[in-house]
Specification:
single chain, globular, four-stranded antiparallel beta sheet
Length: about 230
Amino acid sequence: MQTLALSPPDLAAVLERDGHALAPAVLDGAEVARLAESLPDPGSQAGTRSLLALATVRAVAADARLMSLARLALGGGEVRAVRATLFDKTPAANWKVAWHQDLAIAVAGRADVAGFGPWSVKDSIPHALAPTEVLERMVALRLHLDDCGPANGALRVVPGSHRLGRLDAAGAVAAAKASGNVACAAAAGDVLLMRPLLLHASPPAEAPGHRRVLHLDYAAGGLPGGLRWHADA
């Protein structure tokens, strides 16, 4: 995992090549502490969805520094945050996630549109697996609120796997076995940029404490066929 400070062209090149790139020290310690204090405690759950409803989360999602990273990742046009989720790992919720891609998007309402589905409902919000052309206009900015290394369940990724297209569960496992993977260590205030199609997994923490990550999904453009992002509801 790239841990050195990167200039914008270099960061964009690493993201294009590997499907992930680290932007260090985007927020300072005081900013991280204020944001963390404003967020709900997931308790025994792995994460908390729909956090764009919180003013503090909307503010950080619209922060010029994060917006600049999202624009850089998505080609420089108009972008906006469309979903925010808080993940944590504690002794009460020391969870494991198998190899997968982030294929589901949150929408305002269900509609029968070619390429979208299967459908599900999570926390009363309709979700659909999205077609590749939509996912390629998205990027996740994972803002770390705690230092995160291999011992506390850092994300593991398969570099370059975002170029494999959409994979089913069996294909994801096979591709992960066929390629090397790396741990994405990060410090509080760092932002990990990640393509939705990048294969990633998360092991349980060896020494669980807080491992809070505010996962912000950004998108360029709208959705077809009358579908709308849930953030626009």
